[in-house]
Give the backbone structure.
Amino acid sequence: MTAFDLNIDQTTELADTFGLLSDPTRLSIVIACKDQERSAGEISEIIGSSPSLTSHHLRLLRSARILKSERRGRQVFYAMADACVHSVLNIMIEHFFTHSHNHEN
């Protein structure tokens, strides 16, 4: 499937997903969970956000199937739900921060 094969609903869903990841807090959450499972409290500490705001963002990311959750006792743990999103993030991080950018045309 190419971009030209996407119907308007698929294009909208893709744009919504990128929109979710365009928020720095949500992107920080996803990056925190990219390579290891983390508790909601740990995520809140890592990103420096209140537990209630972190929970709000986690609900959105889980609803979009970017993150998955698992309750263990009183804690909820989050991890990447999709290997493709994980790969895209790794590619973008490598593209922007690992390779030297030549800004000459």
User: Anything to note?
Assistant: The helical segments are 8-21, 24-32, 40-47, 51-63, 83-98. Residues 83-98 form the longest helix (16 residues). The first strand starts at residue 38 and ends at 39. The chain has a mean pLDDT of 89.
